[in-house]
């Protein structure tokens, strides 16, 4: 059965893999624990298929969905760690900046689940610094898909900022997400954004109440309620599982809570009680928001004792989950304490104590915001410094390493015992001059970028790809015997040959690959790779030509001796 499933997945498109992963992510948020496990299992199978295909953007998106599903499943949170590490490494390797920022956001969320607020601040600063740059859309993904990924990254960052209680910055980030969604988002992205902004406003309003800013809190609740009304249309066309005869506010706890907090009245009670018993797992933040909203509606109906029991039971049921939503847990405790309070002097003293404590907590919140701003500035400076360093060693057209970086890396590898055997390949484009003649130099530049991406995407993480000049590239494959290097480069040749004509303009690759010899210098090994490349050209191009040294021809591997020794 598993083999049949793998065969079926092998027949679907990349777009289907990503689309199905998005559906599973939406379903996982509205499932019970068994449903969540099933969605994780299916998403993992999609990731296996994506890895088999090897397209970096598809792999990154599947890694993101699989990690996010685990972060939303209480019993599987720890298993997200290796996926988050892989996502960050993978996006760095392939220059996928938007998904790299999202990796930082999800790692920040994971840090909060582990109770590490300081680590979460660092991760969010890293993600924001990436998105502060003027990022160019990914041509391979297309403008709309890239905009959606950018909006998702901003939303994920906004959620962590909300959990940290840094609401002003969360509001700014979500406003940026709104701009991207307005340009390219579909109904699902619009619904997700509106629901998350609603959640942020409710948390913000409860926090403002705790420092006595009732009018400001009421304004946040009113805006959240208006969003809960506006989301009904996009919700009905979203990927979320739903019952068509019920409104979004009758199925989404945060939306039902928004209406009740904006105007606590008797008519909200039945709906909120139903929301508390939904046949799915509820996140702690949802349980808290619904409990506070329901308790206020019960009080408005003179059912104070029922409200007390509700808040006490909610606090007891959420014991041990305070790390991920600390500010909401405090709001829940405050709501409970207000109902328990009597009218004697001791209560007045307790109220004064609570006010002083809230003032101190607000001061700590401001310190947290200052810490985040400082780290963000540091990350921006580091990002700028890294960019300057990269520019000195990077080809501006393709984003690959330049000739200077190649010279440095090749010299280091030639003198490194761990890099042996070392294969060196020279890559030249067949038919590239015709592209410039038939089309334009701008089209030629696009072809060079496309080929550079194919080289980077089809080779190993440890392989070094550089632009040598013009339409020539050099690849260093440390630790790869000549036969293995030849096989890897054949995959690259096939990948470029199989590109759509509007991307490749019909060019193919001629590649010459050699294995470094004892005592050989960088210039000598590159000259042999060049000769091998010209043999591939003479044989018709679109192929790999491997030159073996005399020792290899007898089946023996040469003893490695660094240049200048022996």
From TrEMBL:
Chain positions covered by the region annotation Disordered: 545-566
The record's GO molecular-function terms, alphabetically, read: diguanylate cyclase activity
UniProt cross-references to InterPro entries, sorted A to Z: Diguanylate_Cyclase (IPR050469), GGDEF_dom (IPR000160), Nucleotide_cyclase (IPR029787), Rev_trsase/Diguanyl_cyclase (IPR043128)
Q: Which GO terms describe its cellular component?
A: plasma membrane
Q: Which residues form the GGDEF domain?
A: 420-549
Matching SUPFAM superfamilies, A to Z? Nucleotide cyclase (SSF55073)
Residue ranges spanning the membrane: these are none
Q: Name one GO biological process term.
A: negative regulation of bacterial-type flagellum-dependent cell motility
Alphabetized NCBIfam families for the sequence? GGDEF
Q: What is this protein called?
A: GGDEF domain-containing protein
State the organism of origin: Saccharopolyspora montiporae
